[in-house]
Amino acid sequence: METKNIIIVGVGGQGSLLASKILGHLLLNAGYDVKVSEVHGMSQRGGSVVTFVRFGDKVYSPVVDKGQADFIVSFEILETARWLSYLKPDGQIVTNTQQIDPMPVITGVATYPENLVEKLKAKVSKVDAMDCLTLAKEAGSVKAVNIVLLGRLSKYFDLDDQAWQESLIANVPKKFLELNKKAFELGKNFQ
């Protein structure tokens, strides 16, 4: 199998590292060679966070180059735009429409770009954008945005639901498992 590349992007504190851990677990259990590379940046101060997940028969490097990502999974819409150059021409975007103001916007030296979903759709043919924050709240916690996104991403993988559930069970604390299972289903089944 040709190596597939996923970039998970977001803002510090949104749970992108847990999402990459669950995804890595899922793919390893499915028999793939998997490499995960985490770049934290200023994540603890609300800055950009990116994780590369690569999988296939044999993966030699954890880094995804520009124009090579099969998927961009994004927790925040401006981060989607920021990492767009990494997407393959026929790549798939799975993104939360949530907007989190970066420091230049907070300090007033910049304004948050408008109509980002429409701008992305003008550049990329495969954009799956949804309000994951509202679905996470419906599941029971705003912190479940990451699992809502994974549920949505699962629609694009040829892996059965049981495999995804096993990876949730292995990586999510037991006291939050039912909430996260609900968040996963809400993301997967959103219309």
Tell me about this structure.
- The chain has 191 residues and is of the alpha/beta class.
- The chain has one domain (4-189): Pyruvate-ferredoxin oxidoreductase, PFOR, domain III (Pyruvate-ferredoxin Oxidoreductase, domain 3).
- Helices cover 39% and strands 23% of the residues.
- It is built from eight helices and six strands, in the order βαβββαβααβαααα.
- The chain has helices at residues 16-29, 77-82, 103-106, 116-123, 132-139, 145-154, 161-171, 177-189, and strands at residues 4-11, 33-39, 48-56, 69-74, 87-96, 127-130.
- It has a six-stranded mixed beta sheet, with helices on both faces.
- Helix 1 packs across helix 7.
- It is globular.
- The model has no long low-confidence stretch (mean pLDDT 92).
| Rg (CA only) | 16 Å
The overall pLDDT average reads 92
Structural class: alpha/beta
Return the CATH class.
Alpha Beta
Shape: globular
| CA-CA gap between termini | 31 Å
